[in-house]
Amino acid sequence: MDTREQHPASPPAVTPWAARWTLAQPWVSLLARLGLAGVLGFAAYSKRIPELSVQSVEAYQLFSPGVAEFIGYTLPLFEFALALLLVVGLATRYVGAVAGLLMIVFIAGIVSAWTRGLAIDCGCFGTGGEVGAEETRYGLDIARDVGFLALAGIVMVWPRSPFALDRLFGLYR
């Protein structure tokens, strides 16, 4: 029989970086949440003229006219709904995941247009459509959307943030 005293394991030492992150994380998440909401809200607002939004989707030449029209009409509403949910902080983790998937779809669409040699404006923030070959900015558009994907990742992985309705429902305290 072992006569040594049994002591409960002591908690691991908290590093200074971990302590700082614990304090900063909610505020980083708040900034990411509101930044992503701003991007999605502005994108929705810039597509408020349905015919121009449909034109932007049609420029990618990926969908039949009926599907392109449906996407052109509903995408701004979807972006606005995501932005609103992010602003109020409701279902934050899930909205971050959906926004991240949306950014991946946007990146894939831009890569598709680029590899097929289309000369279009992405239509991400306003009117899109055909442009001169020298006017395309595919690399910058992809880099920008990767940045937005990073914001969505922050919101998804660390959803806890101040001023969120999630806290009222006991989520992400």
From TrEMBL:
Which GO BP terms apply? Answer: methylamine metabolic process
Q: Which UniProt keywords apply?
A: Membrane, Transmembrane, Transmembrane helix
Say yes or no: keyword Thylakoid present: no
UniProt-listed InterPro entries: Methylamine_util_MauE
The Methylamine utilisation protein MauE domain covers 26-156
Q: Does the keyword Oxidoreductase apply?
A: no
Membrane-crossing residue ranges in chain numbering: 27-45, 66-88, 94-114
Q: How does it sit in the membrane?
A: Multi-pass membrane protein
Compartments (UniProt record): Membrane
Any one cellular-component term (Gene Ontology):
membrane
Query: Can you name this protein?
Result: Putative membrane protein YphA (DoxX/SURF4 family)
Q: Which organism is it from?
A: Lipingzhangella halophila
The organism's taxonomy opens as: Bacteria, Bacillati, Actinomycetota, Actinomycetes, Streptosporangiales
